Amino acid sequence: MTRTAAVFTAVVFAAAIPGAGATEGESATAGEGHGGPQGEQHDEVASTDGDSTTDGEPPGESGDGAEHGDMAIPMQAPGIELWVSFYVDSVSRIAGFDSELHIDTGRFDGVIREGREPGGPLEMEGDLDLPDSDGYFLAFDFMPTTSTVGFVQHGKVTGTAELDLIEQVSHVDAEAELFIVVSEVEQDGIPLRVGDECRTRVPATIPIQGEVSLIPGATSRMEQVEYEIPSFTGCGVDEDLDPLLTGLVSGHGNLLDTELTVRCIGCPPGL
To answer: Domain range spanning residue 37?
Structure first.
């Protein structure tokens, strides 16, 4: 087993089995005999592959485990998954306006699992749900412009994760594809009728990179990333406003700062 897989397995078992992260003395007390609730849970997990642990057999001596510090790490069973959930807070600097868009708190729910290639990196995928947010910008450097900006996910957020049990962190390298939707636009207080279908022609590709704490309630600041806003389409009720929106908003050099706050680790999907 690679160190990454061993760390992943330990995190999964620590999240899924009460007392798995306890000290050596506490684990011995909690698992003594099979009459207690924790002993019964351990038996259920151990019997999933058709083999149960022999009473009194010290952990790790059967040849099915690996040692990581003082914790015995069981050999990973196929299909084990670690579900994670984070609150997401972001601020984006839109290069075309040289102004910031404060994105209201959203949520990411995903899963980390063994990759398709043995010994390869762990894979991560999930859903990013961001609420519509109100933006205030200066068009042409002088005209006040307000709008509602929405983000519509296109496909799953996908990437890789490297877990570190000792530090209780994960290094994440992922991408989200999001259509950017603009509505309720006003320029200098005058409504600009962009309609309900004004969005980027293709989704924007947003990198998500950095080190994330796995401690409940902890907040992690991700690396600042740069992304491109694609051209717009479907804008305008009375006239074609695609060129206007594209000229004002689209382009390179947009920056995104994101903070992830742990909502829960090991929680069931949809909770």
So the answer is: 3-74
Cβ 169 vs Cβ 214: under 8 Å: yes
In a domain, 57, yes or no: yes
Q: Give ∠ CA 255-259-261 in degrees, rounded to 5.
A: 160
Write out the two tokens for 58.
């010290």
Q: How many CB atoms lie within 10 A of CB 138?
A: 12
Same domain, 255 and 125: yes
Cβ(156)–Cβ(178) below 8 Å = no
16-71 tens-digit pLDDT = 433 333 333 343 344 444 444 444 443 443 344 444 444 444 444 444 433 333 33
Overall pTM > 0.90 = no
Q: Which helix (H) or strand (E) holds 11?
A: helix 3-16
Instruction: Enumerate residues 6+ apart whose C-beta is below 8 A from 11.
Output: 82, 163, 165, 214, 265
- From CA 268, how far away is CA 200, in angstroms rounded? 34
Q: Which two tokens stand for residue 254?
A: 């947009």
Q: Are 207 and 175 in contact (CB under 8 A)?
A: yes
Q: How crowded is residue 230: how many other Cβ atoms within 10 Å of its Cβ?
A: 18
DSSP state of 48: G
